[in-house]
């Protein structure tokens, strides 16, 4: 016998989904009554310019469990935040209004509610093709580099999540109004010690309307929001600033290092440096050979307390880049 929740709020953010609203609600009314004793279905109209709002209101007039909330266009994150605030029951589920997910699979998430606070779906395969796969992969790297996002989360922006209202009350207010809303939500929940479960879900191609998730405007907004969200995580911001400052110093010293005349026959020293790098040992190893540029050497010695060869400097530049890139593959 399937597990059933005491109460469940379900909401869908909608933007120009006039062709999807009716089949979406029909599918929700087919599935949701079997999942919870008490439930509500909330349609969030995010400033649609088509007939989405009109159709949603007509549907709500016929069923008291359906609620419509309409707002000026605030973006995907803004629509989700409205849904989080409006939802009143113990558990909150949301998905997009484009019918790319099977609502019947909510039951798979409910089975994990006994010991977890957030049950998040991850797409076994994305239906939109390579471009969206690439954006998803880049988002994971972006989140890891800038926010040290937990690496165990498989699909950050999968719009198939079941969350305790208690979690939402804890992590709100949320700042993001765009594509980083899931990053902010999950990172705050993780830092607060809430428990996660992940479940594979089916993803289908959109039948009607157009997706805006991969538009240039959305990507630009995500970059801007990254800077704003870093203010919520001062330790991470400080870490990034220190590493960036060190990288700038290396770049400024790069042309100076090129002018240093080091011993060409000291191959052992450079082989050792390469070996250290390959073993992820980035200890600064000062070059002990002689040089003809005494003035340049003196300047470098005062700045970094040792003489640096071109190879040493190059290895440290590679260190910075590798820490950013390899950090994605390390545990969160």
TrEMBL record:
GO terms for molecular function: undecaprenyl-phosphate 4-deoxy-4-formamido-L-arabinose transferase activity. GO terms for biological process: lipopolysaccharide biosynthetic process. The chain crosses the membrane at residues 239-263, 308-330. Gene3D superfamilies: Spore Coat Polysaccharide Biosynthesis Protein SpsA, Chain A (3.90.550.10). Pfam families: Glycos_transf_2. Signal peptide: none annotated. One of its GO terms (cellular component) is plasma membrane. Keywords: Cell membrane, Glycosyltransferase, Lipopolysaccharide biosynthesis, Membrane, Transferase, Transmembrane, Transmembrane helix. Residues 9-169 form the Glycosyltransferase 2-like domain. PANTHER family: UNDECAPRENYL-PHOSPHATE 4-DEOXY-4-FORMAMIDO-L-ARABINOSE TRANSFERASE (PTHR48090:SF3), UNDECAPRENYL-PHOSPHATE 4-DEOXY-4-FORMAMIDO-L-ARABINOSE TRANSFERASE-RELATED (PTHR48090). This is Glycosyltransferase 2-like domain-containing protein.
